[in-house]
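TASK: fixed-backbone design
INPUT:
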């Protein structure tokens, strides 16, 4: 014997008609378009009563990862990353070779005096 038919076959339990009368009124929204350097458009939605200064000027494009701005003709460019600098690189920017040799010599002299191996 085959099981009986059901009027709700294919429907999830508790489902009903969809629409504003059942789900409430949707808040007013505004669509804001952003463009990346490759010309891709991304649309984000914000509450209509949100102040203009709270809407971001730049976002990360979900398709390319590039920064995307609101001006289609002048999208933001990818910022040039500075290479990682070591502590030594920063020290070399501040000191000349002669200063470095003098500081090293002074530090070695103090170390020798503490150890009692000063020449």
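OUTPUT:
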């Amino acid at each position: 014997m085959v099981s009986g038919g059901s009027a709700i076959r294919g429907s999830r339990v508790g489902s009903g008609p969809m629409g504003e009368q059942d789900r409430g009124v949707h808040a007013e929204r505004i669509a804001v378009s952003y463009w990346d350097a490759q010309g891709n458009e991304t649309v984000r939605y914000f509450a209509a009563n949100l102040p203009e200064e709270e809407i971001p000027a730049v976002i990360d494009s979900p398709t390319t990862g590039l920064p995307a701005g609101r001006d289609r003709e002048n999208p933001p460019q990818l910022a040039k990353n500075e290479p990682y600098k070591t502590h030594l690189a920063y020290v070399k920017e501040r000191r000349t070779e002669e200063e470095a040799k003098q500081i090293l010599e002074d530090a070695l002299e103090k170390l020798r005096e503490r150890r009692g191996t000063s020449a």
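COMMENT: Residues 82-119 form one domain.
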